[in-house]
Amino acid sequence: MNAPETLASGTITEADERALLDAIDRWIEKKVAPVAARFEQADEYPGELVQDMCEMGLFGALIEPQWGGLGLSATTYAKIVARISEEWMSLTGFFNSHLMMALIVQKFGTPKQKEHWLPRFATGELRGGLALTEPDAGTDLQGIRTVARRDGDDYVVNGAKMWITNAIEGGILAVLVKTDPDAQPRHRGMTMLICPTRDEAGGDLPGVQRGRKLPKLGYRGIDTGEIAFTDYRVDAELGLVSGEEGKGFLMATGGLEIGRVNVAARGVGIARRALKEAVAYAQVRQTMGKPIAQHQAIQLKLGEMAAKTRASELLVEDAARAYDQGGRVDLEAGMAKWFATETAFEVATEAMRIFGANGYSKEYPIERLYRDAPLLIIGEGTNEMQRIIIARQLIARNPV
So what CATH class is 14-123? Predict the structure, then answer.
């Protein structure tokens, strides 16, 4: 089957956006919906769908047109993510993690790095992600142990990363390392390196050891995995982002902002789908001689589910607009991420209760939404951390 229409690049009008979203909807209906459950239940890598997303330009969605990307706003991007997540959330992870890597190069890279990497990132020829998390370092990024030392024109990297999207099937990663492990404060010793992991023939480069694909409750099909580096060498000119050491922590946290907008948009997609399924089911499932939608207990659930889903949509829109305007969006992205992901879990849970035993069955999509939602509460910074970030930014923006 042919891939869906290539999306128009560059700044888009409202009409362009509608056409773009319509193309996404047609692809979801024709290509994703018929196979999502099969791939998800088998935890199988959906290679053809990934290729479709490359051909649609989604791996270059936020990359500027001068480098071959679509140059979409975060506002439009969030709408795409929410739509795809309504059908199968895992698909959004392939290109979001990749774009977090690409945006680091686009924002901080040297002219040579941008010219070398971004066109290949935009087409999906090189697909990768952001390698931050380690076995003993998640939310506390400053606790990473992966190190890199300069050796002539190269950096030599040693360490291990885990929970890395595109670690198994991908071919490149933005890797957060310590170039000065003794620096105080710790973030001053942290550096970002762009590290190819495959050669031109597709084999692993020397020093790269791919670990297992991690088995997960939900978010299945995508290759979330482990990867280790042992005396791995990367060219400093192309790999050292910005050409400076000690800037990696800033780059990583900046990349997480669009990641949080993405995760919040995924939450919107899950909540929308769960709400739609619950509203429809409640009108056909009968107890005591009438549809359960006519029972007040079910109406109370649906009313709260609808209000929280709409509030999530508005918070995501607000965060995406703030991102498009430039500057820090810790507050807006944190609020959207916290509320939308908590809502996704609550709405999926309530939908399962409305479905009763059928919600527990793999013959309905509710159980998949229920399994996918918890990841959003944890990923891209736990929701406990989001509330701390929100409070700190609120105080910083409103001094007395």
Answer: mainly alpha
